[in-house]
Amino acid sequence: MSKQITTISFFRFSSLRDKLWGFQMMQFAHKDIAKAEGLTFYRLMGSGKGKGFNPLPDWSVYSLLQVWDSEDAAQFFFESSHLMQQYSNHTSEIFTLYMKNISAGGTWVGKNPFEKGADLDPKLPIAVITRATIKWNWLIRFWKYVPTSQEALDGNEGLIYTKGVGEVPIVQMATFSLWKDFESVKKFAYNSKQHKEAIRRTRKNEWYKEELFSRFLPYRSTGTWDGKDLLAV
To answer: What residues make up the domain containing 167?
Structure first.
């Protein structure tokens, strides 16, 4: 299997000054991120309010998804990068999850960046990343149905954390979710009438210009989110 790993980092900004800095980094951080050694793919993303997809921005939370040749390359970046030190100086919390890809289907900006690095273990936590570019002519109908499709997330005991993120507001959206085990994912995917209906509508109406669905084995974490290590919950 591939030695490739994926990291996803969440940054929380509290003060107005720091929120403005975080917003500016959506433009100015790319130069330092792109030159990281061993980095094969990355996306710096904003987030939406609440859970899952949301067209309203959450100015306090940003996310950085990175794909690395190896864990050593990732660790060197996080430990030595001046940019990451700047993020640390401006944030109230940073949480980073290290993951190995289990499966991935579809494309992200024309390619699938994830290589299989682990097998599914139904007893271990699992992370899911979905990403889609929504067709312009379906934007209104897509966003009108989103609240209904996500109703089953509320009170879901198997869901540890979920957040909607994206590169371009409204049009290019992604969701990250962390679950206690694979059974929890299956219950949401196959037992939720709203979620199944969303999938049916997606296929029938062809809402997406591009989409990707991927599963990961999260095996290491650093930092906290809401004061907790999400991988230890």
So the answer is: 5-226
